[in-house]
Amino acid sequence: MDVRKHLLHEMTRGAFEEWLKSEKRPVALIAVGAVEQHGPHLPLGTDTIWAVSICEEIAKKTNSIVVQPCWPGFSPHHMAFKGTITFSAETLLNILVETIDSLAKHGIKRFIIINGHGGNTEIVALAARLAKRKSRVYVAIPRGPSKTELAKKYADRALKYLEVHSGARETGSILIIRPDLVEMDRVKDWKPTTKLEPELMKLMNPEREDREIAQQVLWASLPHDTDEITSSGIYALTHPKDADLDEAKKRREEFVNFVVEFIKLWKTIPLEERQEKKPQ
Asked: Of 51, 144, 179, 276, which sees the most CB atoms within 10 A?
């Protein structure tokens, strides 16, 4: 049975039960992001808005459901900027583990976490590992594709222009899904405010022969909090107005297709049947 609504909180119990019964190997997509400052122009919920929209698109193509257990994430590094809400690492970890455990008790054994916020990365990875053992389920965090020309272009630009937060790339990702929430007039006179030591700036050259080491040294040496790096909250040297919407759409499509193909292949593996055959 193809569900009409994919967001769990919008489904009736009956619709959820029918979907669960009809799907031989059901998959739940868990969307997690953040509520934090995103410069003067992007909505505070940028990361969560992106994660949920991506999940919905994937769910429609795979007949999966989307679970949004919370809006905020782990964002202590943005707390100097008003509007930011942060959970502790323990709180976010428990939210994810307990969400998965609840749905596992209803019969779902496969979960995919789509994370829209870099600050959550390590917590999400640990949640996946803990939930897998606690609830006897399978949890994936697909990453990719990384070898396309566009992926390489994004990686080079992220390094060269420190395009991490609220710059052209992230602005483009929101403009293509919720342009009504973007207030570009707030950055019409903006100039880059990102400031790093000259020694760190030298590590941002994607043409360096030791790029792999240099990039890791760069990330290991950045200041602790965002306000130590940028006064405007835009953590990038690229101007938001330079967002390439066609490029953003193509990158989004690449990622959606990657996860869709991941799910299709994953469903060919008899994980549920493996558990049923487990010796007592």
From this structure: 51
Could you tell me the pTM of the whole model?
0.94
pLDDT tens digits along 22-48: 999 999 999 999 999 999 999 999 999
Please state, as a whole number, how many other Cβ atoms lie within 10 Å of the Cβ of residue 11: 18
Residues 6+ apart with CB under 8 A from 142: 112, 258, 259, 262
CA atoms within 13 A on the CB side of 275: 12
Coil, strand or helix: which one is 2? coil
* CA pair distance 62, 69, nearest whole angstrom: 20
Are the C-beta atoms of residues 176 and 245 closer than 8 Å to each other? yes
Q: Which residues of 41-50 are buried (b: 16+ CB within 10 A; e: fewer)?
A: bbbbbbbbbb
Task: Name the packing angle between helices 168-175 and 149-160 (round to 10°).
Answer: 130
Q: Which domains does the chain have, with CATH numbers?
A: 8-276 (3.40.50.10310)
Q: Which residues pair with 7 in a beta bridge?
A: 66
